[in-house]
Amino acid sequence: MKSDPVRIVSKRHGVSRLSQPLSLFVARRLLTGITELPAVELVEEEIENARAQPLLKFFDDQCGCN
Amino acid sequence: MIHVLSTPVLYSLELTPVCNNRCRGCSNVFAEAREAHTVPPPLGAAEWGIILDRIAPHAEQLKLTGGEPTLHPKFESIVRRASSLGLNFSLFTNARWLNPERLVRFLVDIPQCVGLLVSLHGPTAPVHEAFTGVPGSFEEAVANVRLATSAGLLVATSIVVTRQNHDRIAETVALAADLGADHAVVSRYLGELLPGLEPTAEELLTAICTTEELRSSGARVRYGDCIPQCFTENSSTGCLAGVAYCAVDPWGSLRPCNHSPTVAGSLLHQPIETLWHSAAMERWRDLIPAACHTCAEFSRCHGGCRALAELRPERRDPLVGAPLIQARPPERVRLHEGLRPVRQYRMRREDFGYVLMRGNRVAPVPFEDKPVLDACDGRTTLRQIERCFGQHGLGLVAALYQKGLLELELAA
To answer: Which residues touch B249 (CB under 8 Å, ≥6 apart)?
Structure first.
């Protein structure tokens, strides 16, 4: 693999992707009205934790680096 | 399209340019001047007080940084002023403190201190100090993280991926947990070209793969900055700089982010609204590559790092590639029908609708969805929300829950 990052191409180019809902950034394709909200199925039994990832406190969306 | 907030809600305050580390990868825009001893002294407590007064009506959360923020001679006064204004803040520090016991005691008594982000660039002294440039800095930081966590302060550790540590991520995350840290933060290097320290693409991929594997296994680790989704699939979130977030430098100038040399003007002399919507800020927002606006991941990725577009010879984030072209079907979520959503956010009206905020989490919601938000009152069940608002209402609730802006509770 080349060391130039620009040459790295994701293997997921052209395949299906999920966009983050409720974003301040709206892609042009979403302006056409395609929904990106999760599809919810309501069930009678208790679900332990529906979050995909645990919530981590503070700095969740903000640059915290060098 | 970008919904730029009417004023920023997240503020990074660079209290002082002074630092007691000598990080090779420091991306303070004033780092060179600091090394040449040509930086002017930072604002004093009174001037920082003026700035805090001006941003308080708009701010959801602050990040106090530097340099090393605790080295500001009036650090405690500035923190007390922020506290008196009810401003929550996190402290980004190298944990090399002049008087560790005093600092920890001081912060424990400040309820607005939501946590410390401490630089920990490796699992051993040689690896950590290859970045910090100061012998003994590892031992000091480790001891002080332990002191802070033992006192009950919430601590996260921050590792910047380098050539020296790209294959030591798991060990560093494990060390953070051993020290009592709540979680570890993995960040890519953002700055000017730095051969010898900056990882190659392969090395960065190694670090990202490790981070994703750790997250999948339940480890408490996340990313601290944006990694374009077209570089490799990853769970980082996009940068909000210039959109919801800004930096204020040690002399009171507003910048779009702490990595960017762009200066919009002085907060001591101009209102935040004027600076935030200035031509300089608009030019900076336009640094997002045009193709990113068509990418299926734009709403998550936000188009890479704009500061790198200023700092790199290629005039763009070097990790940004070609846009992704297809969206996959919406995520499927199963939830108990009797759960009752409870709001955990503050809300502000904007041109596009409302912005919901909780700490550093920010989400826009259109005006027409306000009735759904009103139903998240702790009394209405998901089944009732479905009856009133259909699948769209449920999807909105689920998305807000995933972002941490709602909690779901079962009736007693």
So the answer is: B14, B29, B30, B255, B263
Residue B289 touches partner A, C-beta closer than 8 Å: no
Residue B386: its chain A contacts at CB < 8 A?
40, 42
- Indicate the pTM of the whole model: 0.91
pLDDT, one tens digit per residue, over B70-117 is 999 999 999 999 999 999 999 999 999 999 999 999 999 999 999 999
Q: What is the mean pLDDT of chain B?
A: 94
Tell me the residues of chain A between 13 and 32 that have a Cβ less than 8 Å away from chain B. 13-31
Closest CA to A18 of A38, A48, A3, A41: A38
Chain A neighbours among B 184-243 (CB < 8 Å)? 185, 187-191, 200-202, 204-205, 215, 218, 220, 222, 224-226, 229-233, 235, 237-241, 243
CA–CA distance from B127 to each of B19, B184, B331 (Å)?
20, 16, 40
Q: Using omega within 30 degrees of 0 as the cis cutoff, is the peptide bond preceding B67 cis?
A: yes
Q: Is B410 exposed, middle or buried (0-12, 13-18, 19+ CB in 10 A)?
A: exposed
Residue B219 pLDDT > 80, yes or no?
Answer: yes
ipTM of the complex: 0.86
| Kind of pairing between the strands at B183-187 and B155-160 | parallel
pLDDT (0 to 100) of residue B377: 95
Q: Tell me the shortest Cα–Cα distance from B353 to chain A, in angstroms.
A: 11
Residues 6 or more apart in contact with residue B97 via CB below 8 angstroms: B70, B103, B144
- B247 pairs with which residues across the strands? B12, B255
C-alpha span between B402 and B166 (Å, rounded): 29
Interface subset of A 45-64, CB within 8 angstroms of B: 45-47, 50-64
Indicate the Cα dihedral angle B339, B344, B348, B352, nearest 10°. -40
The predicted structure's pLDDT at residue A63: 57
Share of chain B above pLDDT 90, in %: 86
Identity of the residue in A22, A39, A40 whose CB atom sits nearest the CB atom of B364: A22
- Classify burial at B344, counting beta carbons within 10 Å of its beta carbon; exposed 0-12, middle 13-18, buried 19 or more: middle
pLDDT at A6: 28
